[in-house]
């Protein structure tokens, strides 16, 4: 039995017409000889509307009851999609997460899948049925309904495909993963093939379609993921081990840029291990998402620390620093909210040295100052003044072949 | 533990504001020392909207998938009501029919409750929680979701109250059962107390708030039912064994009238047992809902049969008669769609003779011809020309004390 798990997102089933079109796409796959399992998200804005209803009832809805509410969204779309398939003459059957015993942890709204009992699905597939499954949801040992949080339906699809030993196809409203958001880099190139690690880095930068969690799970099971458009036949992107083996020339696979961070520089810290620990320890306790960190110790033994964090956490950061200044009046700080944070990601960096040097040279030749920089094995992230964002994206995009 | 099961219909939870008001009403009952179980219907027009969605997908939605779709309606309202209760500081927990193992037959869309496992409810009540249960739904042995059809939520409430050994209160948008629909009988009187049999007769006439099925179930378990208004404190109606014992003077409890029936009179039938059987046998096979039947045999051995049936079944009835005429050309028929069917119901008829006579006398004094009449132990039904409907209602309403 050739099994394929297809996942259709909320915009793909956003109307009755689209549901009928998705049914046709599924039938096409079925005719190619596949046993098809379909994961569906809630229709269009349904989840948002349900959240609004809850917020109208109370500012602070109970997470368990929130899950009870939100799981209805997918239940509506699976039943409608099954009706559409049946009306087109194909046997189909829908199941909720609880019905399939998609067992999760009991952390409501952010549950994680523990195990899936696929016997019911296999039984239906053997009866030649298309099985339509509610994504994003599961059930605890105690029969309480749970949801999986952001990216949950993708995670449901990957988990089911891994368990069933089938292919996994994620259909959405874009036709694949691009080297960069095409709204930011004109002529950004569609990536034919990308590795799990690169995709995870790009996903954690908020770039491109897939959520970190689903890719991480696919990586764990070495399950190839196809990402493509619901309503177009153009070739999408494969996410798989090793990425694009045939394209060794590609050093940089993708790029992302964010205008949502600030750079904070703290001057005249006492130079000691505990100084750094105390600063970032307090940030952590207050839930500040510190990203890049850079430090320098001057000849007279004073320490400078610079870091980036989301602009929306400015008041928390300033509160921590003001409190600290009461104990150590010599410290001062500067905040720059006018930065752009640029990240370039590429598995090729592992084998191609000098990528950072090439980036620095490009910036220097164009008189663009790098405010802070950090590197990891397959990623370089740096900040520049916000006015330069467009120029930097253009320079790197062209220098590293990220455009068509 | 004093347990009460309260049921709130769709209009009672039709908006976020109403849900919050219902929460206050529940809290009031809780403060009176009751352990409260609440059954809720889907919000306002939700069920209608879901049905429209399904009909947009296909003219003929699969019943199983229809149930999958419709059960979301109550799941939304139970979660919102629980959130409202919790936000007001009371511990509450919602459960779907499948979660509570409300076991039903497997006839989708018209399932019947077989048994309820109340252990989960009892556990929550012992933890001092308010338990909010989705009405109208259940689950088969095979874990398939089902709905109970019309009047389903009332039936859920009665079944739960019977099983839990608690009181049962049905809250709706009217403040009780009236002697007649007040739109038809001005000054119709609210009934303080009515027997199961009377209520079943009135329910099957389409009169008054409660569905036949829920009353039938309450009668089976001799469970007193209270019917009252969600948003008013005025005294409602008790439905209980024996009705209003203290009011023996009341012979007639209620009245209903319908303009949706026609009278068909078939002339010159062969006078034989098989004649009647053949006529009504065919009607039954074709699903015609024959109500009143009256027959007469003339001196020359010909039979006249008159009966009533819904006007919307006219073409089916004529089809049957035309087919029969081919075999028996001597028969002919008349159809009168301009009748009003009036029913009076009262437990008092059992002990008070002469009710029918009193009705006939009233009609005769006012020159109103009775077209057909049938009587049962506690009901008299008769048809008059439609033009007399208002007059007849007024005459009987006043003669039998059905008005304030």
UniProtKB/TrEMBL annotation, chains A, B:
EC number per UniProt: 2.7.2.4
Task: Kindly state which reaction or reactions the protein catalyses.
Answer: L-aspartate + ATP = 4-phospho-L-aspartate + ADP
Fetch the InterPro entries from UniProt.
Answer: AceGlu_kinase-like_sf, ACT-like_dom_sf, ACT_Aspartokinase, ACT_dom, AKii-LysC-BS, Asp/Glu/Uridylate_kinase, Asp_kin_monofn, Asp_kinase
Q: In which pathway does it act?
A: Amino-acid biosynthesis; L-threonine biosynthesis; L-threonine from L-aspartate: step 1/5; Amino-acid biosynthesis; L-methionine biosynthesis via de novo pathway; L-homoserine from L-aspartate: step 1/3; Amino-acid biosynthesis; L-lysine biosynthesis via DAP pathway; (S)-tetrahydrodipicolinate from L-aspartate: step 1/4
PROSITE patterns this protein is in? ACT (PS51671), ASPARTOKINASE (PS00324)
**Molecular function (GO) terms listed?**
aspartate kinase activity
List UniProt keywords, sorted A-Z. Answer: Amino-acid biosynthesis, ATP-binding, Diaminopimelate biosynthesis, Kinase, Lysine biosynthesis, Nucleotide-binding, Transferase
Question: The ACT domain covers which part of the protein?
Answer: 264-340, 344-404
Q: Which residues form a coiled coil?
A: none
Role of this protein: Catalyzes the phosphorylation of the beta-carboxyl group of aspartic acid with ATP to yield 4-phospho-L-aspartate, which is involved in the branched biosynthetic pathway leading to the biosynthesis of amino acids threonine, isoleucine and methionine.
Similarity remark: Belongs to the aspartokinase family.
Name of the featured protein: Aspartokinase
Q: To which species is this protein native?
A: Alkaliphilus hydrothermalis
